[in-house]
Amino acid sequence: MQKIIPILLTILIAGAGGFAAGRATSGFDARMAASGAAIAAEDGCAALARSEWPIGVRGLRLEARAFGPDCDNATAVFVASTEQGPLYQAAFATSQVFGLAEAETQEAMTVALSDWIAQRGARSTALLPPWPAGAGSPEAGEFPFTPAPWLTQAAYENLRAEDLPVFCMAQGLETARCLVAREDAIEDIGLQSFPG
Amino acid sequence: MRCFLLTLMFGATVLNACAPAPTTAEGCAVVQTHAIAFSGASTSDLAAGDMVEARSFGPDCATAIVTLTFRAADGAPLWTFAAPARKVFPETTAGAMDSVAALQGMDTQLRRWVRVMVLTTADQPRWAPISAAAGSPPLPETGPPAPPWSTPFDQATYADLRERALPMACFETSPDAASCVYWEAAAGEALLFLEFQR
């Protein structure tokens, strides 16, 4: 046990000062296989799409990009940002995201990414299903909504009353993650299930 | 000329910065990779050819996103972490820098970041008796005052995972925080095991 704490602290210390070469030899280098052997990062599925979330005066910039050796093994990253920098980001394996999983070429992935971050129609927190006081969760309609863990029933109902714009994007094969923008922050409010 | 000089300085890692971007300039495109053995049936049967890939992208390094992706030998992504570069490397991205200095700083950081620490779940502390309640963070039984910990597991599951000594990799998520993910061979996926802060 005594040796564990130094190992973990080393990770943090490295955060401030870096994994200097000298540190990498302090006992756990043997577990770092093939250290220093750079491998070419293949980008057989590099794709990029940009959009805008038209809220507020300037709106938010949305960016979706994919990278990976091929489109079957690509990673997708979603970023929402202002001129000052990113406010929200999330990464996914494209094989696990509805709409991206089917894209097999860079061209198809570019189209899929564009579709992924396209905001269609006006969505609002007012359209979320009601969560009656005393109930364990919001009313389950045809497309159940699962609130984020931080949302209490009261906070959820306040959110509905605020009538804020909602942006939802597929984050799995059967669910979409829904976000709201508030001043200089983006809040994750929960998961919307797909039909079926 | 600029790209030629950058390529001479940093090699292939900045080639993306010099390649035509799909729709806009990519001012902070850097990639670093590092070979590890992470996935596999057990710690004695780890798959060769796993890889960690660290990337940055964005119009400039101050507002860039950085990602750390664990990939299997066939390229399949096992785990991806994404965060603003200014959160992970605040000192590197603070202040105004010209593009050469910014790329050099990012390249240095990614080169270091990609070298994740590969351990096993058994290397993490036992759940301290004082934190016996389900959901409490684990605390070391001995040693110096512990930093704050958090784990998505209850005590019994945490103890079981620790007992199984599964392959685990730890990486920084900021200068004073780190995350550890482990490989669950039965499910064929990487999962978060522990997060801690200084």
Please give a structural write-up.
The complex is a heterodimer of chains A (196) and B (198). By secondary structure, chain A is of the alpha+beta class. Chain A has one domain (47-193). In chain A, 18% of the residues lie in helices and 29% in strands. Chain A is globular. Chain B has 198 residues and is of the alpha+beta class. Chain B folds into two domains: 1-115, no CATH class; 116-198, no CATH class. Chain B has helices at residues 2-10, 15-18, 85-88, 90-93, 99-113, 155-163; strands at 30-36, 50-57, 65-71, 77-84, 117-120, 149-150, 167-174, 177-184, 189-197. In chain B, the strands form two sheets. Chain B has a five-stranded antiparallel β-sheet with strand order 5-7-8-9-6, with no helix packed on it. Chain B has a four-stranded antiparallel β-sheet with strand order 1-2-3-4. The longest helix of chain B is centred in the middle third of the chain and has 15 residues, at 99-113. The radius of gyration of chain B is 19 Å and the shape is globular. At the A-B interface, helix 1, strand 1, strand 3 and strand 4 of A face strand 1, strand 2, strand 3, strand 4 and strand 5 of B.
